Fold this sequence. Notes:
7 strands, single chain, seven-stranded antiparallel beta sheet, 23% helix, 3 helices
Amino acid sequence: xDLQCPRCHGPLDATGISAACHACxxxxxxxxxxxxxxxxxxxxxxxxxxxxxxxxTEAALPCPRCERPMDPVTLEGVPVDTCTDDGxxxxxxxxxxxxxxSHAVPSAPPEPQRGWLGRLLDRI
Length: 124
């Protein structure tokens, strides 16, 4: 089955776990493969795909596999389109941004300021 890019309607080049559009640089990734990518970015946390609904600014893109309209959502704050059965469509550079954000470790809280007594006791 030949896959067609939902964005520019060019052919998708399927390679293993994804399918890429060379014209618009979009990328189609299956849900299982995407969950595995997120898990690699968060080895110490449970990797779950958490999609947040967003308001569409254009007509829904068709799923490259089943051709049903995909849902506009965000993943790690990045706007993407998802088919609940098949996978996730990333426009150019959105996958790398979502993975970068999923890997971001919250900064450690600042150490509390020590008063003069604490600093004195540290020297003893």
